[in-house]
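Worked example 4.2. Below are the chains of a multi-component assembly; read each line carefully before continuing.
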Amino acid sequence: MSLIINLAYFAAAVLFIVGLKQMSSPTTARPGIIWAGVGMVIATLVTFVHPEISGGVNYTLIILGIAIGGALAWWSGKKVAMTDMPQMIALYNGMGGGAAAGIGAIYLLQATPETVTNTGLAIAVTGSLIGSVAFSGSLVAYAKLEGLMKKTFTFGGQQIVNIAIFAITVLLGFMMATSGGEIGSFSLLLFFVLALAFGVLMTLPIGGADMPVVISLYNALTGLAVGLKGIVLDNPALMIAGIVVGAAGTLLTQLMAKAMNRPIKNILFSQFGGSSGGAEEEIEGTMKEIQANDAGIMMAYAEKVIIVPGYGMAVAQAQHKIWEFTQLLQKRGVDVKFAIHPVAGRMPGHMNVLLAEAGVPYDIIFDLDEINEEFKTADVAMVIGANDVVNPVARTNPDSPIYGMPILNADQAQNVICVKRGKGAGFSGIENHLFYAENNQMLYGDGQKVAAELVASVKALG
Amino acid sequence: MIIEGFIALYIFMLAAFTGYEIISKVPVILHTPLMSGSNFVHGIVLVGTMVALGHAQTPLEQAIGFVAVILAAGNAVGGYVVTERMLEMFKTSKDDKKGDKA
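Applying the procedure described above to all two chains together yields the following structure tokens:
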């Protein structure tokens, strides 16, 4: 019996790695997730005959739990809008962290000097701490992105409070790990309460713009917690899957932080947007306005158009109209490309998902490194719903808070059209010098309405 | 016990490098689905919660285990559903001509 279980876990581990590997290319990504899914089903089914599971009540509870959790997640996962994907991932991730903490809690409750070693306890405690932080932290991230919670929450001496709570939690954990199995229920309870509180307090001061990096970090942490539980439970499938995700998630977090030019350390331990970020440079030039009709005709007669979409476009639900507009331009022989900044959506790659939802094929979508040189040869660059990611001060003004962030060089195109809902600085409150540039024209209006007008203007040309 | 001390450390190390290698070649366009996909993979914690609940003895342990199973099942199922939904939408210009279901 144990042979079948071990073989099944081994197969699951292989399928997970193959699946993740396949997810690294758009052509094989879909089979990839399906293979990983097959691995999950095999591992889950075979666990029903695991020798350590006993008692009719427990079996009933397991089946009931899977049914409840699975059904709720299925329903919410099918229903969620693509724009809300980041917070949904945060929520599901938090659930995984909570589950890992739960395993730890049971292990520590059952610990007796005869059954455990200090090493086992130390691993269980570490995994529980990480899992708890990932759980409560992810829930806060979810609440923030979902708009259930005010954007940032800070108070004086917050750092000190956080450090103190963390220190006490670690100390309690250390005491439990060296107890040899005699763990008081009060210290156990306090340990979990403090660990959960730390996750909340750590996430509260972080602004919405940095949230994707935080979600990715918690994803990595949950992976690590699951891997540690794998060691505790002597379960290689958990170990391998957890650690693979932990490592992959860490790298992904680094890539995101790099793309945003925000070192992970700064995101976690300092508050963004609080300071004005140095002296504002004097802006030369004035903003010029253009009407949608003129903009549409300009692009219809262009040879090459690069569209720079930002999250604002997705909020306005303009991506479908933009794709319709793109197809009209393509029929007229215009070469249309999409340029995506790594943080164009709410997390790297989110914009690609939103464009894919509208039907835009991924082979006309390019990322920053691929397309930045091409702006020089483009007749028109249209920026829609994006702001900081095309702000040239990131290249020119060392005093600017976004200085050094890689940006899309939309300002180098012959003509630039910026679609914007109203005047004023963007999300981060930083003035965009592109708006004042000689070759730039502003197209004011709601993204969806503007896109519809653009479509109409090209259609009118016949 | 099948995973003894140092063997666990070896598995840990090799799995970490595997995870790092897999991600390092992923194009930016797939970062969101991939984060979601890796989120699904750690849903394997479900297996762990099943075992933990399986040998729970007191009502308190059963309650914790039950909640853990619900959470883990949510992680696994939810992670799968959203990842699959996202990846389903990715297509090239060539696919476009074959079937436009929009």
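Take a moment to check your reading of the output against the notes. The radius of gyration of chain A is 26 Å. The beta strands of chain A are 304-309, 335-340, 365-367, 380-384, 415-420, 440-444.
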